[in-house]
Amino acid sequence: MTHTIAAPRTPVTRSKGTNWEKWGWIYMRASGVVLVVLIFGHLFVNLMVGKGVHAIDFAFVGGKWSDPFWQVWDGLMLWLALIHGANGMRTIVNDYAHNRTLRGILKIAILVAVIVLLVLGTLVVTTFDPCPAGSPADLLPSICKDL
């Protein structure tokens, strides 16, 4: 049984359909650039503006997430980072898991974990209310007493 190895510059014939590896590669580059902007903006606002790290508490987060701009900013950062990380983990699984069944199980586990984290994270960012109506006054944070 002999195998012939094609010359390095020989064009590769591909089956018709979507090249998921190419789109995964493009996503990693594009999301990486956007994530750098989002993360450094997040760090600048949280650590440099105002009193810096000493100002970060429940009231700071509650005030930030009451603004739709910061909900979109943090939600976008959450979605891009989780999908970016999942795509990286998928690549690692493809590179190192040689058993087809194990590879499939690991990719399904990554997908389930990402879906659960995206749903829970999105719910937290979009539905966060530091002062829920009808709550006992002694359980509410001090910022709610002024409202």
TrEMBL record:
Keywords per UniProt: Cell inner membrane, Cell membrane, Electron transport, Heme, Iron, Membrane, Metal-binding, Transmembrane, Transmembrane helix, Transport, Tricarboxylic acid cycle
Cofactor(s) the protein requires to work: heme
Topology of the protein relative to the lipid bilayer: Multi-pass membrane protein
Pathway: Carbohydrate metabolism; tricarboxylic acid cycle
Superkingdom: Bacteria
Record bears the keyword Transport: yes
Subcellular location(s) of the protein: Cell inner membrane
Function per UniProt: Membrane-anchoring subunit of succinate dehydrogenase (SDH).
Name of the protein this chain belongs to: Succinate dehydrogenase hydrophobic membrane anchor subunit
Higher taxonomy: Bacteria, Bacillati, Actinomycetota, Actinomycetes, Micrococcales
